[in-house]
Specification:
heterodimer; A: 126 residues; mainly alpha; 0% strand; B: 143 residues; 6 helices; elongated; FluC (chain B)
Chain lengths: 126, 143
Amino acid sequence: MTASLAPWVAAAVLVAGALGAVARFALSRALPVRPGRLPWGILIANVGGSAVAGLVIGLAERAALGDDVRLILVTGFCGGLTTFSTWSVESIELAATGRWRAAALNVGATFAFGLVACAVAYLLAR
Amino acid sequence: MGAYLAVFAGGLLGTGLRLGADLLLPHDDTGFPFSTLLVNLVGAFVLGILAGGLWTRPTTPSWLKAGIGAGVLGSFTTLSAVMASLVLIGTDRQWWLAAGYTAASVIGGLVLAAAGLRLGIGRERRRRAAAAAPRTTRSDAAP
């Protein structure tokens, strides 16, 4: 993290985050949650965002991308595209309605696929 | 269309707050990401309260749910930063740090989401009970 952050970089991070949030919202609308089923839209946004973050960090590591671009894409776009709060609350809501398997699958699949996608993208890109 | 604008505006705010947390609590790529853990746990708790309360009221407009839920809290919290930190901490072979961060995020997030939901549902139930109670009951109760 750089000590000083140029105002245009900060603004770009915010706009990129907002665009990521809009993309996630569009995905969740395109794949609406059916009661008791996995929230696929959010799962895809989370796994996809984790893969892009790994890719960008890998590229930045071999100086193919600058620090500012990394911050805008990773903290901004990927941070906005992915979400932790919806993932936690929807998993608990599944469990609270007795859908324990769906809840466990939502937690496990998001985490496992997200981690593998991020790691593979990072290792291929760096 | 209104919902998308609300999500965009909320996304600016949520991302800004998360960026602020990152700047206030900076961490190395291979260090413990306190800022990410903090925003994720706070965001899961607050979304739980809202999902148990405000979201269940028929009068809550859908653009507001979208703006605060998907927009502000959705972009305030992040899963990609958790994954990126785990990959970088793992590449650095700090397995215990990776395990501790995973446990703190997953267990902490689920516990706080459940606590928030419980709190939100309880508050909403009391609010509705108070609103449904006849006015005379309350004035009669006064000495």
